[in-house]
Design goal:
The structure holds two protein chains of two kinds. By secondary structure, chain A is mostly helical. Chain A is 65% helix and 0% strand. Chain B is of the alpha/beta class. Chain B folds into two domains: 88 residues, Fe-S cluster assembly (FSCA) (GMP Synthetase, Chain A, domain 3, 2-Layer Sandwich), CATH 3.30.300; 69 residues, no CATH class. In chain B, the strands form three sheets. Chain B has a five-stranded mixed beta sheet with strand order 1-7-6-5-2. A four-stranded mixed beta sheet of chain B has the order 8-11-10-9. Classes of the chains: A mainly alpha, B alpha/beta.
Chain lengths: 251, 169
């Protein structure tokens, strides 16, 4: 197997978890109430844990003194290949939950396929993560329904959040060169194949939440190629601060 | 720690009482043996090789558990290596009967079977027993609790809040 492709493939998955984990971590102490505050940080912790497993594997793969910390903390903005969806800011609680929901549906579908990977390490991480991500999806779906089918104001906020984030959903199903190479090896997930199932699952929850599924066909892309929205730079300056200030400190 | 994958579980009986001294730092009443996180422990050329598996991916206790294992083994005269393995993934079914009782005595309700767990966490069914008074008239306060493995409940009879160890399968 081409090492470079495998490395890139691992980073694509890991960066999504790391960046979304960091976004949720920002809510620590700032959640709308204690329970959601704790939930946000718990989900964040799961995502960080998953990304550590991926980065440890990636570090072993490239050797050369790389560690989970150097990969997670010391790349520049253009070298992160997470999707644009996960880097979007915590505009309000509806936005935070909508972003979580739109990612969780994808995440679970992707992991269900990844656990069949011929790469035993990826399969093991996927199998471990599925149990956690199923729980995330239950939580975020609950909130989409609760706010969507709530008061007039909460309904409007959730609808605005879904409408605002919709433009970032299509990128989840774009194949990179690393994706294609890994699919050919039987080690990667063909994300194109997940698209129909994704939108039908999302639509079903939105309908239960009395929300409209957006009809816009105009989508943003770029994260998978390292071209990000303006929000990622600020996030990274927070994320990387400790590692750049105290080089080689460990988690 | 190095990530590896394995399917077998083998623990040398000489090592059981030693490893039983190590507990989860976040749930001190529960030893790592009762929790089922030790998947293998063998002696090779006087070096003990231990494999542990995390309860949750992000469980911050794993690094501490790894260090504690090395410490108790050293006190027993063994050098050791501790590896973190991910497959097969940990499940709450691996918590022993003694472990479940220790949890309950400590004030954490032990995990229900998977279907009942879903009904309690999602369907609002009153299935989780209060660890303080034993009443089943309890209410879910939060799907997430003080650690990734727990949810927060409240007893509607004695009014005490308590943790519930979520079923993971």
């Amino acid at each position: 197997m081409n090492k470079e492709h495998l490395y890139k493939y691992i980073l694509g998955i890991a960066d999504n978890s790391l960046i979304l984990g960091q976004r949720l971590g920002e809510l620590c102490g700032h959640g709308p109430n204690l329970e959601t505050d704790i939930a946000g940080t718990n989900i964040s912790l799961d995502l960080f844990g998953q990304s550590r497993s991926y980065y440890q594997y990636a570090a072993k793969l490239i050797g050369n003194g790389a560690t989970e910390d150097s990969i997670a903390m010391l790349r520049n903005e253009r070298e992160y290949i997470n999707v644009l969806l996960v880097e979007q800011p915590n505009t309000d609680f509806a936005y935070t939950m909508a972003r979580q929901f739109l990612f969780d549906v994808y995440h679970l579908l992707m992991l269900q396929e990844l656990q069949k990977s011929h790469d035993v390490t990826l399969a093991a991480i996927a199998n471990k993560s599925i149990k956690e991500v199923s729980y995330h999806l239950r939580f975020s779906s609950d909130w989409v329904k609760r706010l969507g089918d709530g008061t007039e104001e909460s309904h409007q906020k959730m609808q605005d959040a879904i409408d605002g984030l919709w433009t970032y959903t299509d990128e989840l199903f774009h194949q990179t060169d690393a994706d294609k190479a890994m699919v050919a090896e039987g080690a990667g997930v063909d994300v194109k194949e997940l698209k129909d199932s994704y939108y039908s699952k999302v639509t079903k929850v939105l309908a239960e939440a009395t929300l409209e599924t957006p009809e816009s066909k105009w989508f943003q892309k770029g994260g998978k190629n390292g071209v990000h929205t303006e929000h990622l730079g600020y996030l990274l300056s927070d994320l990387q601060y400790m590692q750049r200030t105290f080089p080689n400190m460990e988690w | 720690m190095v990530i590896m994958t394995t399917v077998e579980q083998h623990i040398d009986h000489i090592l059981i009482p030693i490893l039983d001294q190590v507990s989860d730092p976040e749930i001190p009443v529960l030893s790592i043996m009762e929790m089922g996180v030790v998947r293998s422990a063998v002696i090779e050329n006087n070096v003990v090789k231990v494999e542990i598996t995390p309860t949750y991916s992000g469980c911050p206790a794993m690094d501490v558990i790894g260090d504690d294992i090395k410490k108790v083994l050293l006190e027993a005269g063994f050098q050791s290596e501790v590896d973190l393995i991910l497959a097969p993934a940990w499940t709450t079914d691996w918590i022993t009967a003694k472990g479940r009782k220790a949890l309950e005595d400590y004030g954490i309700a032990a995990p229900l079977k998977v279907d009942a767990d879903k009904e309690a966490l999602l369907g609002g069914k009153k299935l989780v027993k209060c660890t303080n008074c034993g009443s089943q008239n309890t209410k879910l306060v939060s799907q997430f609790g003080s650690t990734a493995c727990k949810a927060l409940f409240k007893c509607e009879d004695c009014q005490e809040p308590f943790d519930y160890f979520k079923c993971l399968k």
